[in-house]
UniProtKB/TrEMBL annotation:
<dbReference type="GO" id="GO:0046872">
    <property type="term" value="F:metal ion binding"/>
</dbReference>
<keyword id="KW-0597">Phosphoprotein</keyword>
<keyword id="KW-0460">Magnesium</keyword>
<protein>
    <submittedName>
        <fullName>Phosphoglucomutase 2 like 1</fullName>
    </submittedName>
</protein>
<dbReference type="GO" id="GO:0005975">
    <property type="term" value="P:carbohydrate metabolic process"/>
</dbReference>
<dbReference type="Pfam" id="PF02878">
    <property type="entry name" value="PGM_PMM_I"/>
</dbReference>
<dbReference type="InterPro" id="IPR005845">
    <property type="entry name" value="A-D-PHexomutase_a/b/a-II"/>
</dbReference>
<feature type="domain" description="Alpha-D-phosphohexomutase alpha/beta/alpha">
    <location>
        <begin position="89"/>
        <end position="206"/>
    </location>
</feature>
<comment type="similarity">
    <text>Belongs to the phosphohexose mutase family.</text>
</comment>
<feature type="domain" description="Alpha-D-phosphohexomutase alpha/beta/alpha">
    <location>
        <begin position="236"/>
        <end position="342"/>
    </location>
</feature>
<dbReference type="InterPro" id="IPR005844">
    <property type="entry name" value="A-D-PHexomutase_a/b/a-I"/>
</dbReference>
<dbReference type="GO" id="GO:0047933">
    <property type="term" value="F:glucose-1,6-bisphosphate synthase activity"/>
</dbReference>
<keyword id="KW-0413">Isomerase</keyword>
<dbReference type="InterPro" id="IPR016055">
    <property type="entry name" value="A-D-PHexomutase_a/b/a-I/II/III"/>
</dbReference>
<feature type="domain" description="Alpha-D-phosphohexomutase alpha/beta/alpha">
    <location>
        <begin position="352"/>
        <end position="478"/>
    </location>
</feature>
<dbReference type="InterPro" id="IPR036900">
    <property type="entry name" value="A-D-PHexomutase_C_sf"/>
</dbReference>
<dbReference type="InterPro" id="IPR005846">
    <property type="entry name" value="A-D-PHexomutase_a/b/a-III"/>
</dbReference>
Length: 620
């Protein structure tokens, strides 16, 4: 359960009167928390956004169901109140963890942080980490506090390795420089899910007054319960990484050059170490973006998913160095973007779905080539979120392993993977379309560090076969069927409008009826995860658990297209995900692309009606 403390600097104006436009995309929001202090200060959890100076004295937190667009007061938060909310949050977590674990004081708690920090407010990730540690140290709980910034994957990895009760990562990932927050992991090393999230919220409500010692940052330096896991975790993480290194000898000899950008975040040092673990020469860093910079000075937004517009410095350096592959980790190094120069000199920036096809093929191929003869393919699993490409499903059907879908968000993937591991299953790979990848199971979350070095090894291997990543992707699609996808979104700042759009789809021709067609395209099945309905099931119930806190409807068309409309839990968006899934014998890519575009146009015109509903289009 990631929690985002939203602390815009004093220079940031309101984007729209009385509207909050949150930018965090860590995971869907579950609950809104508002401070009843007469100042309009509000916050919400999974992502805890704080705005407006609220008086410290007498402030109370009240919980109500989450929404996707929240009031934004004219003023911004003070650092005192940000620290107060951070302390209150940890007090609630402490209370819940103490209830869940009788040995909490023996097992301890992991705290990591990235390199974010606000000059105007002194609100750095490191400071919030120390405040977090202080709350727990004051209660006699051992705290594994990293002495240096780390990638987000290091926290869930450390939780499992150290057998801690839980852990938090102080980060806002690839979001705006004004953001900061918490990403929470349970004892299993996966992001927190229900019922823990709801129970923590209840405990936060019961702990709104700061405890004695909660503000004493000096405890971090003076308490014997403070432990630094950096050296131990870094060492064993890199050793574990070698388990998914299959061609070390080739890696040491490759002539391929790799460019790496860490987007002013934590990734540089750790990607360098990962390349060393795989036997590679160090990747060439983008000098302007190598070192931590909380202002993200060289990019408009620190999100590598945005493509060429944010990879300009990387691509320029690659051309100068005659490097063919560019690797970009986001600021907390849990996601990875990849670009490859093509024979015509142009750059191809792979989508998350395309990279997943490559990773899935590679991890299964490596498993087959290096596994024991007794290994049973029916014991092997791969996973993806339901809005991601179905390419892994196609590979699984042909190769004989299992494929599963989860709700959007890596918390669902991590928890399900842990269940599978506990039942003796072998999980090779999992992903979400927004460039989040899990190679192997050392970390039960997306991991940009491991993904970067795995794709480098894949590229090096393919080089020996005179193949590029793009050429191999084409071979995968020709073998398992083309999967052409597109993702985009519309901005909508009016919650009633968003609700009206989805309610119309549930009452299309008459009450409680879903559309049977969209323009000229017939609809075969409808799945509404919000209500738990699925017309493809005999009992008409969705296999995925119902999720009433967000809107999500999926349409399976008669022509093979699958399209999902869903709201963002943290942003004022209606997103669409559309994919044409073809059989291997259907190799006319141009035709499939045309069909996909026509379905998307029909979907927008008939279901979203942007002009009528005042939706603002934004391409991804």
């Amino acid at each position: 359960m990631p929690v985002l403390l939203w602390a815009p600097s004093l220079s940031v104006p309101n984007r729209r009167s009385n509207q909050l436009v949150p930018f965090s995309t860590l995971l869907p929001t579950k609950t809104l928390i508002t401070a009843a202090s007469g100042t309009g200060c509000s916050a919400y959890l999974d992502h805890l956004h704080i705005q407006g100076p609220a008086s410290q004295k007498g402030m109370r937190l009240h919980i109500k169901p989450s929404c996707h667009d929240l009031p934004l007061p004219g003023s911004v938060c003070t650092i005192m109140n940000l620290n107060l909310h951070a302390s209150v949050l940890l007090q609630g977590m402490y209370k819940y963890l103490e209830r869940c674990f009788s040995d909490f004081r023996q097992r301890g708690f992991v705290v990591g942080y990235d390199t974010r920090g606000q000059v105007t407010s002194s609100c750095s990730s490191k400071r919030l980490a120390k405040l977090t540690a202080a709350v727990l140290l004051a209660k006699g709980v051992p705290v594994y506090l990293f002495s240096k910034y780390v990638p987000t994957p290091f926290v869930p990895y450390a939780v499992r390795q150290l057998k801690a009760a839980a852990g938090v990562m102080i980060t806002a990932s690839h979001n705006r420089k004004e953001d900061n927050g918490y990403k929470v992991y349970w004892e299993n090393g996966a992001q927190i899910t229900s019922p823990h999230d709801k129970e923590i919220l209840k405990c936060i409500e019961e702990c709104v007054e700061p405890w004695n010692g909660s503000w004493n940052e000096n405890l971090v330096d003076t308490s014997p319960l403070t432990r630094d896991p950096l050296e131990e975790i870094s060492k064993i993480y890199m050793e574990d990484l070698k388990k998914i290194c299959y061609h070390r000898e080739l890696n040491t000899k490759t002539n391929l050059k790799f460019i790496h950008t860490s987007f002013h975040g934590v990734g540089h040092d750790y990607v360098q170490l990962a390349f060393k673990a795989f036997g590679f020469k160090p990747p060439i860093p983008v000098p302007e973006q190598k070192d931590p910079d909380p202002d993200f000075s060289t990019v408009k937004c620190p999100n590598p998913e945005e493509g060429e517009c944010v990879l300009e410095l990387s691509l320029r350096l690659a051309e100068k160095e005659s490097a063919r592959v560019v690797l970009a980790t986001d600021p907390d190094a849990d996601r990875l973007a990849v670009a490859e120069r093509q024979e015509n000199g142009r750059w191809k920036v792979f989508t998350g779905n395309e990279l997943a096809a490559l990773f899935g093929w590679w991890m299964f191929r490596s498993w087959k080539a290096n596994g024991s003869r007794e290994a049973d393919v029916k014991n092997v699993y791969m996973l993806a979120t339901t809005v991601s490409s179905k390419i892994l499903k196609a590979i699984a059907l042909k190769e004989g392993f299992h494929f599963e879908e989860t709700l959007p968000g890596f918390k669902w993937i991590g928890s399900r993977v842990k269940d599978l591991l506990d039942n003796g299953k072998e999980v090779l790979f999992a992903f979400e379309e927004s460039i989040g990848f899990m190679c192997g199971t050392s970390v039960l979350d997306k991991d940009g560090v491991s993904a970067a070095v795995v794709i480098a090894e894949m590229a090096s291997y393919l080089e020996t076969k005179n193949l590029t990543l793009a050429q191999q992707l084409t071979e995968i699609y020709e073998m398992y069927g083309y999967h052409i996808s597109k993702t985009s979104y519309f901005l909508c700042y009016e919650p009633p409008t968003i609700k009206r759009v989805f309610e119309k789809l549930r009452n299309f021709d008459f009450p409680k009826s879903y559309p049977k067609s969209c323009g000229a395209y017939g609809i075969l099945h409808v799945r509404d995860v919000t209500t738990g309905y699925d017309s493809s099931q005999l009992n008409k119930k969705s296999v995925l658990p119902a999720s009433k806190n967000s809107q999500m409807i999926t349409f399976t068309f008669q022509n093979g297209c699958v399209a999902t409309l869903r709201t963002s839990g943290t942003e004022p968006k209606i997103k669409y995900y559309a994919e044409m899934c073809a059989r291997p014998e259907q190799s006319d890519k141009t035709f499939l692309e045309e069909q996909l575009q026509k379905v998307i146009e029909a979907l927008i015109e008939n279901f979203l009606e942007p002009s009528k509903n005042g939706l603002i289009w934004r391409s991804v």
